[in-house]
Design brief:
This protein has 15 helices and 20 strands. Strand 8, helix 6 and strand 9 form a beta-alpha-beta unit. It binds nicotinamide-adenine-dinucleotide.
Amino acid sequence: MNKPKEVFCYLNNEHIAGNSASSFSVFYPGTGEKLCETTEASIAQVDEAVDIARQSQVTWAKYSSQQRSRILRKAANLIRQYTQKIAQLEVWDTGKPIREALEVDVVTAADTVEYYANLAVTLHGDFYSTNDADIYTKVEPIGVCAGIGAWNYPFQIAAWKSAPALACGNSFIFKPSELTPFSAVLLAEIYKEAGLPSGVFQVVQGGADIGRALTTHTGIQKISFTGEVQTGKKIMADSSVNLKTLTMELGGKSPLIIFEDTDPDVAARAALAANFYTQGEVCTNGTRVFVPEKYLAAFQNAIEKRTQNVVLGDPFDENVNVGALISAAHKKVVDNFIESGKAEGAKAFTLGELPSGAFAHGFFTQPVIFYNCNDHMQIVKEEIFGPVMSVLTFKDESEVIERANQTDFGLAAAVFTHDITRMQRMIDQLHAGMVWINNYNITPVEMPFGGTKQSGFGKENGMDTLTHYTKRKSVYISKADVFSPF
Ligand code: NAD
């Protein structure tokens, strides 16, 4: 695929250039080269998108659930048909390895669109009958919904947010991260080709200001946000202008807890994947790896045997499994964390080789495993969102549970053990929105995805998400005389 060179908004089924006074640059993380300069959408264009979305939502909600389902199923098939094109665009956008974009990003996007296509026909309310009345709930779309995305899984995030919204009869406006503006427009083109009516899915381009134009807009009834905790707090405050409903998919510092009955090679594979997939830019990553004191040496040996498998380089090369970080600025943040870990006395074990040639100017950072960590180090407490693993040791189960929970985040957790009662105790006591047992970062579409505590609220995927894109009207049909003290 040729390098993408232009970024458009997508309004009313047309590619439209942003027309504000400000612009942003888009870079290819793999080489650091600038791909284009993009003019942001203006506030007037956001207003226009909301007006279009309001009108098109009325039309879309009148489609039968079978019609909505058929269009979304076609979109899912088209996503699968265009796998190569989407994956390549995702690599230009993010600098992640193409094999991941092919195996995960496109697959999980198609699965989600297909899943909600199938669920569109199942939406229903409840019925209750008393002596005095028949009572039922009517499930209705919310109206105009908007999504604001992060840069790590741009196509997947756009699909995960829009598919349930559209299945429920809402219209949707999506703002991708300004660092990864390309692939959301490709999703819009796919929805159009699948038969989605004009204006039901639109894309506006820009940074925080355009995000704020959505969150403060009184014509929008719901925001689904993926990004940092601090941004999430601002969005909650801004969204209060008309009491929007919210889904918040925020950051994490998740524990990966390994007990000594785990094969050390299994533990090593899990810990490496849980930290270095998408070069560590995964919100659910298990960045605090807890191993029993007695087990540390076996774990270290198993890790060392696998580290020759780490290959940094051309993200389009299918042998590469660690790509480039998203930007020069983010690379600096990650590198500073690595320096802080060394300065605080953790022992760094660095993996792979930095790439050379054209890729020497890409935003690559070698993955680092830190041993000799303690709970008070900056690298152990804060979300890094880069390829940095902290290994911590523990003595017993109650200690590790307490330490794993000592964080404001609560996105995910994992436990490796074959002791079933221990598993159950851990599941009950870990403060996390998702717990994996004997695996990591697996997100089948049936599994509701989302955090607790400051990692956010609301879910993506799974049947729960239908409740986040619908409202319920309670209807009371009286069988009795009017009650009145007058
Ligand atoms: P970010 O918060 O900087 O930006 C996210 C989006 O918000 C971008 O589109 C940005 O333009 C927009 N934005 C920024 N300020 C805004 C404002 N005041 N009002 C409205 N919109 C605004 O996050 P990021 O750096 O893009 O992404 C990394 C973060 O995302 C990490 O913390 C990561 O853990 C989190 N994340 C969470 C999940 C999840 O599902 N829980 C998934 C992926 C990433």
